[in-house]
């Protein structure tokens, strides 16, 4: 029998039954996430926070996902997404190659 659940990313309520005969054993992520989108958002945030991916890569991945419900996200996940989206690469100061050497 499907069990009511709440997504740990967007807090959306959904149902999932891991014990039902039609449940796909490769989709155990449905215990915590309402969609693959939320699952991916969580993974990017986790990788960003742990340093497993570079901030620029995290930003590209988050921008490719649907974050339109950001205001509904769990506080920590929403904060991570905001941090990722606000990332700006540091600009390097260019050396003047035409500078005279005494």
Structural description of this entry:
This protein has 102 residues and is mostly helical. It has one domain (3-85). The protein is 34% helix and 8% strand. The chain contains three helices and two strands. Strands 1-2 form a two-stranded antiparallel ribbon. Helix 1 crosses helix 3. The model has no long low-confidence stretch (mean pLDDT 89).
Quick tags:
102 residues; mainly alpha; two-stranded antiparallel sheet; 3 helices; 2 strands; 8% strand; elongated
Number of helical segments with 4 or more residues: 3
Task: Return the string of H and E elements.
Answer: EEHHH
Helix coverage percent of residues? 25-40%
- What kind of oligomer do you see? single chain
| Number of separate domains | 1
Beta strands, count: 2
Overall pLDDT confidence = 89
Uncertain stretches: none
Give the class from helix and strand content and strand pairing. Answer: mainly alpha
Strand order, largest beta sheet: 1-2
Main sheet makeup = 2 strands, antiparallel
Instruction: Kindly provide the radius of gyration, computed on alpha-carbon positions and rounded to a whole number of angstroms.
Output: 20 Å
Cα distance, first to last residue?
A: 82 Å
- Beta-strand level of the residues, as a percent range? 5-15%
């Amino acid at each position: 029998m499907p069990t009511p659940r709440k997504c740990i990313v967007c807090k959306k309520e959904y149902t999932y039954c891991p014990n039902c005969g039609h449940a796909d054993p490769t989709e155990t992520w449905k215990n915590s996430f309402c969609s693959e989108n939320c699952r991916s958002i969580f993974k990017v945030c986790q990788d960003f926070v742990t340093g497993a991916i570079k901030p620029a890569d995290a930003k590209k991945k988050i921008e490719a996902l649907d974050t339109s419900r950001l205001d509904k996200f769990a506080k920590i996940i929403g904060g991570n997404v905001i941090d990722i989206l606000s990332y700006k690469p540091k600009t390097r100061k260019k050396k003047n190659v035409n500078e005279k050497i005494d």
